[in-house]
């Protein structure tokens, strides 16, 4: 790889996507064990000395994270169910010396996680909320990354068709990216409190499946009338962000999800969509995307005009919009935010990665590089600092800052 110093991180992450770990082609596993790919970096332009050992270590951790996420997303649900996803979380926890917190099955119900429980209760493998927590001495703020981990999405009783269901093994792409990024971030040294929150469920069909018209009580205390069982990601994430807010005391909550098919219409195949209550963080996401290769473009954030799409006559809200022609990807994100409250003083960032989570038939590991870059300043690693979006305030137009009452610093 021949590139300039500022492009090393993005180039390495791009290369990682070209070497997927998952295959079930017969005979391939034996060949894969032997296959070693050696990549050499030649730096040109300014700072064109030899690549430092610390840089290589950072690249190794980042690319391992990208490939871990891609492997989980590529693995079909007959192997990557909620049990096996929890094993992946346990494995990362063991490597980092962290014991995960796991709330599962009936305990979700009794503790009030009506979103995750309601979505996952029809499946053979029960739903789970799992958390990996890193709480170093000297931390000055608390960050939560919340991932949508729908290991398979049939749509539930609002079932998907034979052409739209294939590929739904990828509906855990947000949780997979959070896991890959968390592993790399902690290995590179993360100075603030960081919680990885995994909302795991299989949206299945059976006698115990949630029906349209059912009303669920979510962890936020709000009630939701289900009008579309295929709008399940926002239900599990609503519980995840509520937990991050109420139980983890997070100052910054970022959720990442393959949330809406409409994301591809809004921002295309290559750009994730960002929806956030902070103009500063919106600009930071765009800038981090350009530096790491996981591109991002903003969605309209306007709860005062859009949230009425979820109006219900009998509950606090419905889970699916009345009008699909009214910025549905924005609305889906707003549903999640409404469970921490639009007046919550912290920073909330929602990243919809439905389209860029894959390229053709392969997972991309999208989101890992983005999280590492976006929170690069929480690390002392020079490379992560180089790709962090710090200083992006100058990119924000004066007029935009007015709406931004959130003064949480960029880490
Ligand atoms: Zn769905």
From TrEMBL:
Pfam families: Peptidase_M17 (PF00883). PROSITE patterns: CYTOSOL_AP (PS00631). CDD domains: Peptidase_M17 (cd00433). Residues 228-235 form the Cytosol aminopeptidase domain. Keywords: Aminopeptidase, Hydrolase, Protease. GO terms for molecular function: manganese ion binding; metalloaminopeptidase activity. It comes from the Eukaryota. GO terms for cellular component: cytoplasm. One of its GO terms (biological process) is proteolysis. Belongs to the peptidase M17 family. PANTHER family: AMINOPEPTIDASE NPEPL1-RELATED, LEUCINE AMINOPEPTIDASE-RELATED. This is Aminopeptidase like 1. It comes from Piliocolobus tephrosceles.
